[in-house]
Amino acid sequence: MPHKPIIGITMGDPASIGPEIAVKALLDFKIYDYCRPLLVGDAAVFKHIIKKLGLMAQINPIQNIADARFEMGKLDVFDLQNVDLEKLEFGAISAMAGEASFQAVKKVIELALAGDIDATVTGPINKKSINEAGHHYAGHTEIYADLTHTKKYAMLLVEDNMKVIHVSTHVSLRQACDLVKKERIIEVVELLHHGLISLGEKNLKIGIAGLNPHAGDSGLFGTEDDEEILPAVQQALALGYDVEGPVPADTLFSKAATGYYGGIVAMYHDQGHIPFKLSGFKWNPLKKQMDSVKGVNITMGLPIIRTSVDHGTAFEIAGKGIASSDAMTLAINSAVQLAAYRKAEIQQD
């Protein structure tokens, strides 16, 4: 297995579905055909969820990568020992859970920056718990940017034909409008173009969403589309990118779903997330739960690889054994693909 990339996978919030979906994903033994997975978090938490749900796995706690066995059915855990199981309550916000999830993210970033692992995959965290622990971040993306000293970055969501990058994410809607600037849009186009190539996408045509209804309708419904987005599109074309826009968002995503665009640029969080999740999340009204939750979150612009599930902590079903691991499996697959592309880039240099 030495030639296979080592993928560091954080447990997420220990009170969430994070540990469950990580274990379930690694019980798909095909994972071991193309990578060496390493869980990062608390061995006790993983042992607890395995016992509680009757999952067929064992845990190998380690403190050094050299001690990992990468054996199917015996999951290696870089053990941080930050959780007191007697105080852990599924579905509850707590500073302890926030601290444990933050430390897992911090450790996996350190391992990647040191070259000990080839890519990172993150389980879901609870922003309130993280902040109660004293770590004031809006989410994973901001943690990674800060700890890797990255200034230019963006969130890219991937699920089948839908590949959506965002000009802004975790800010108020009012602030998001103010962040629609020509320079930022061009920056995001460049990140998306590189991301599409890294993921093996052949269609590099990029659709750029308008901000206002009907993309402003020549200034009738706002001027940002004409004053910021259109000039960005024109400059991107001059730079050689295959872009189109601003396209009204209510038609852009329906075209994207058919594969017309290789990727699209959304102007703010919900503009991109709502249509994306309509594509990848499948709710079962009879069972009153998700049958499938697909979608990968990739942070573009980092010096290391980071992919993630594109769903939250699902506190309401934590510890019940019904969480879908589809998104975690896809996130691992994407991390492996990105690691292979990065390795090929390095070899070419």
TrEMBL record:
Q: What is the lineage of its organism?
A: Bacteria, Pseudomonadati, Bacteroidota, Sphingobacteriia, Sphingobacteriales
* Enzyme's top EC category: oxidoreductase
Print the keywords alphabetically.
Metal-binding, NAD, Oxidoreductase
Could you give a GO molecular-function term held by this entry? Answer: NAD binding
Protein name from the UniProt record: 4-hydroxythreonine-4-phosphate dehydrogenase PdxA
User: Could you list the residue ranges that cross the membrane?
Assistant: none
Q: Which InterPro entries match?
A: PdxA_fam (IPR005255)
Q: What is its EC number?
A: 1.1.1.262
Stored NCBIfam families? pdxA
- Keyword Acetylation in the entry? The reply is no
Gene it is expressed from: pdxA
